[in-house]
Amino acid sequence: MTYRRLGAAASWGAVCALMLPAAVGADSVGPLPVECKPDPVTVVGTGCLPALFDPVTDPGITYPNLVPDVRQVLIQVPLTFDPETGTLFEGPPTLFFDTWAQNLGTVPLQLTANEVNDPESVAVSQCVSWTATRVCRGTQSAGDLTWHQAHRHFHFTEFASYELRRLGPDGRPDYSDAGLVSMSDKVSFCMEDSKRVNPDALPAPFYKACSPALQGVSPGWTDIYPPGVPGQNLALIGVTDGRYALIIDMDYANRLYEADDGDNLLEATIEISNNLTEVAVVDREYPRPGDCSQGAAVVTSPDGAKKKPKRCKQT
Ligand SMILES: [Ca+2]
Ligand SMILES: [Ca+2]
After folding, report:
1. Over the range 193-220, which residues count as b (16 or more CB within 10 Å of their CB) and which as e?
2. Spacing, Cα 251 to ligand 2 middle (Å)
3. Cβ neighbours, 10 Å, residue 44
4. Proportion of the chain in helix, strand, coil states, percent, rounded to 5
5. Ligand 1 centre from 251 Cα, in Å?
6. Other C-beta atoms within 10 Å of 278: how many?
7. How far is the CA of 195 from the centre of ligand 1 (A)?
8. Alpha carbons within 13 A on the beta-carbon side of 12
9. CA distance 198 to 195
10. Residue 149: which residues within 8 A CB-CB, separation 6 or more?
């Protein structure tokens, strides 16, 4: 669906005039109402014409909802090149895994750069209000994009963190210091539509490039970081066969506005076997705030409006 054929300035004025209150005469059009301002951040069409079909019911704040998942796990012994000796040496057995950043909400997660003059580090905004016709009507600052040299594209920073933890006697992750086996650096993501997870979602991907100007995840789609991507691994040092918790904490710094921040922590139980050569996901838990027995922490974003609910994190 497109409305671009009506993009001329004269047409905008004519269309928008139709939306003005009756008390405002045709001779005193005045400034365009918010609904009619051409918005550079649009998914379907531009400007006020799509809003014309939804002019009286302000949708208000509409947020997406990220929910993490992991589907593929494997253990390999990576080879690392030693430049001093010119040889390859074996590292420790390492758990490789994918991360799915699913958008299970009803509106897109969409990020746009505020300024692209300095693309190595760009403040971004998130669309936080969508019309029913998928036009962005409002944005809020939501973090930064930075150039990721290893991946060769722009990433949204502080997006996820990974931990491997031992299980306590109750089968839940041990969040004490002694329970931590391995943890990742802060993981950044370039968001795009990798795979559809809801059969009712739009059949074609919309966010297809890791651009600093526009990236995101459509509703019913997921971004996937596969196991081979840098950062998608945890070293298995001091580990024997058995069950462990792979913990994915998505948007842990709560930079992104979501309809639900309480489902961003995934505790995936994995079973390692056959002398650290085989691994499988055997269970998934999304503990809600208050579910934990190990203590909790409140994560508050720099934007005081976004306070993340209490989580099962280390005290
Ligand atoms: Ca969420
Ligand atoms: Ca969030």
Report:
1. bbebbeeebeeeebbeebbbbbbbbbbb
2. 6
3. 13
4. 5, 40, 55
5. 8
6. 13
7. 18
8. 17
9. 9
10. none
What is the 11 CA–ligand 1 centroid distance (Å)?
A: 40
Does the pTM of the predicted model rise above 0.90? Answer: no
Q: Is residue 247 within 8 Å of residue 165, measured between CB atoms?
A: yes
Nearest to 125 by CA among 116, 112, 106: 112
> How does pLDDT run across 117-166, given as a tens digit for each residue?
665 778 889 999 887 777 888 889 888 887 766 666 778 888 899 999 99
* Listed residue (178, 174, 214, 219) closest to 201, CA to CA: 219
What is the C-alpha separation between 139 and 72, in angstroms, rounded?
35
Which tokens hold the place of 162?
Answer: 């990974």
Judged by its nearest atom, the ligand closest to the C-alpha of residue 257 is 2
Residue 72 CB partners (closer than 8 Å, separation 6+): 97, 98, 226, 227
User: C-alpha distances in angstroms, 271 versus 28, 89, 240, 285?
Assistant: 71, 27, 10, 15
Amino acid at 177: D
Kindly report, residue by residue over 48-107, the tens digit of the pLDDT: 444 444 443 456 778 999 999 999 999 999 888 888 888 998 889 999 999 999 999 999
CA–CA dist 314, 232 (Å, integer): 22
